[in-house]
């Protein structure tokens, strides 16, 4: 499971992360500003890094404040 903390543009973040092809991310729900995703990956740190890079690669994500952590 990875957690993405993002106070705004949450729908954009969900759509972006679920569109990643390297791993299969599935939005499980949110708690406040935390978005929870299950991932079919052995290496959760790599899954978190991949999600962060995918968000940052977008025009909106480049200026968006967010954090990604693996659990």
Automatic annotation (TrEMBL):
<protein>
    <submittedName>
        <fullName>Uncharacterized protein</fullName>
    </submittedName>
</protein>
């Amino acid at each position: 499971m990875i957690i993405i903390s993002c106070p705004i543009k949450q729908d954009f973040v969900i759509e972006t992360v679920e569109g990643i092809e390297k791993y299969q991310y599935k939005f499980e729900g949110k708690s406040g500003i935390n978005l929870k995703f299950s991932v079919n990956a052995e290496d959760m740190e790599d899954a978190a890094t991949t999600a962060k890079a995918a968000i940052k690669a977008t025009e909106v994500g480049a200026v968006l404040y967010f954090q990604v952590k693996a659990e």
